[in-house]
Fold this protein.
Amino acid sequence: MLKFIRVALHAVLAFALLPPVLAQETSPDVLVKQTVEEVLAILRADKQVQSGNVEHIARLMEEKVAPHFDFARMTRLAVGRGWREATPDQRDTLIREFRNLLVRSYSAAFTFYRGIAVEYRPFRINPGDREATVNTLIRLPGGAQPIAIDYDMSLTDGGWKLYDVRIDGASLVINYRNLFAQEIQRGGIEGLIKSLIEKNSGGPPTAARQ
């Protein structure tokens, strides 16, 4: 899980600084490329990020990154079959707590950040498509093996939004679905909610705790 979160960190940073109107008008591949490059430039120059200021990073993510994620869909996919058992209030709570968990977890994990280079793969989309996948290759420093990161996106009323990230074929959503399934098996939907609240109430969780 540690490696998954460290690598997924780039994915979380991929959607950040374009204003909402521009995001709606921009194709998924252009949106990813523009935001990735601009975010990486900011992160390289931000002294508080470089010093590991987790609160500052969390604020940055909430303001710049979170609006480009479809947290409702991500949560529904991560909870899986248990979603049908949840009441409307429980669903709202799950979405809120899962969002908090993602933001806090990756804010803490950002202390592992190191310089990377991004290669953008050829992109195709047909007119009228409302689902798209943007493929990239992450080149790590020191000659490490490159990592393929695929962004699954959908066109919503608010523009193109991210609902899953696949890292070398491994889905972020499915990874959490496996963890959530264990919690649901032990304590039902309320057990999962309690677990999420506990994780979010103890300060920014570290990668190891996830």
